[in-house]
Amino acid sequence: MAALIFILISLTAAVFHGAAPVRAEDVTTPTPIEINGDTATVEVKLYTDENHNKPLGDTAVTSTSKLYGAFSAQFKSGKAPSSGNNIAVYELPGTIVVDDAGGNLMEGPESSAAQAGTWKIEGNKVVFTFDKGWLERNPANIHVAANFSFQLKNKNVGSGSNASVVFPGAGTINIPTKDGKVTGTKSGTFFQGADGVAKVTWTVKLTVESYATNVKLTDALGDNFNFVIGSFALDGTKLEPQPKIDSQVATLDSLGNLSQGDHTITYETELKSGVSANSGDLIKADNTAMWNWAGSTDGDNKTATAEPVTFGYDMIDKSNGSGTPSDIKWTVKLNQGKLKADMSGYMFTDNLDGKQTYTGNFTVYKGDSEASGVKICERKLEPKDNFFSYTFPNNLEDKYATYCIVYHTKMNDTSSYDTVRNNATIEREGSVSGTDEGSFTPQLTGVVPITKRLVRSNEAATTGRATWETKVALKAIVNAVHPDEVTVKDTFQSAWSQKLGVDESSITIKIGDTVLERGADWNPTASFPGNETKENYDLKIIVTNKVKDALEKEDYAVITYDTTSEELSGWYSNFASVSAPGLKLKWSFTEPVKYVVNQETKPAVEKPEAESKVSWVENFDWHTVDGSDEKGAWIVDWTVYANRQKGNKGANGEFEYFGAGKLGGKPLNIVDSLPDGMS
Q: What global pTM score does this model have?
């Protein structure tokens, strides 16, 4: 009996072995031994699992399934490998694709087993290369066995078919096949052609796992659309025959067999006549596709519903006015929706309130802006009129385009802060219409809305307290927009992570000599962190009768309060902002105001022992110190910190450091005195 040879990777080979003598004078390269029915008794078994626990038998598999084979061959007398011809090859069938592999031929499964040669699977061939010396030392009949993994080469086989695989010397094995899974998605895209017809192009994407036979699809369309006859295509090619259409259902029996991969079915649907929407309302196009195939089961997912494609008219969009009270610019955009109206014969009308008058001309552009549009009409506006209109011609060249109209007005009282309004409509009898309003509120001008100053900070280094004053142009704000409340916000900053926040008990608000009462005339909001350590602060001034009366004599509200902080050195900063409903400000923030804490009268110097380092430097040249030729020295590295202040721990848990005192450009001299024995 011979030893057993194993390849313990994806292929295993077993060999019962012996050797045959080879003539010394035979120096030609022999033709490898072909393993087949003439040279060996061959057997092949197939399995569906890698461990060979599940024989293939009558089990149907998909064309992309991974299968596993067990091959064995007993060489016939005089046909076995020898030292004169030590290579044997088994040609696996071309109808399968075998995974490449390779390794050593080992004499038995033990770790101490001797190597008998090498093996490889490459290009559907199993090649055994035996060591010649091993063959000479082990004369016997040779039996080989090998495991391999593979897939069918032909991926286009499915339910009801067999793949016939002919293994040389072992005969034909029929592999039963079945369809793979078919999954899908559905989507739709809206478009409107030059003729104004609204359509949705639908795409059904089917993903075939391996192969699917006799695929059929049914598509159910929403009530707002009709199928476009002749528009159905599979993978870009028009379907023949086209599907059967019954009202809102299309049945596609002509898809046939689909190969592995992605396939797309596309078709168009058209908006039914009589379906309309008012401006702002949306038309919905929805769609559900269902499919099946010969190998499908009740448990398969065979339905895809598209996200509804929604679209509609957007007949008019009037912007708020821009500019100044003496020159307000208005822009109105027409027909911007996904669904475009035929603008022929539509009439645009603009109506003013009694606080403004027209100036200059109105201009009509094709396009959605003055900058990019094409001018098609310009006419003079009459200042005495409180409205104007424009009717699009019936012979309009671009009927379904977007248009915009630009015009100007001025306020009758250019010093007023009142809001002026402007109403516009677009309409045509029997068609969709629209209306929209714009407004213009002048910016507060002529006054600085809010200022901030530091009243005192002399205690900041000892108690952490500082006093601030915020001055709000409350009279101008109230006269401009007539708010019920005015909001003042304070934002704090610091050099590092010093804590800083408002002492609420210190807050006073005065308008001249009038002191505003907390809860009646003003209310604080809770402090909130701007970051980990800064407590930003808001308060609201309520425009009560008391406040209004006080503003008859005084223009400003003055807010005074204290902040508290740690006594850590560094800078502390504060800026404020003001806001009110309807208030337009070019700049609503104050400039930051800050103070600096200097704890030390002179910069501190630290020389931590823990940070000194001692090392031997073998090549140190003493000539630079004492002129000698001596080499080698102990070197001490020192670190000196000047003007350093330890702060709080940062987000990473490490202490932060910053300047202890402000040097102000003065020289900082550090004198370091070494102990005896050091140079």
A: 0.61
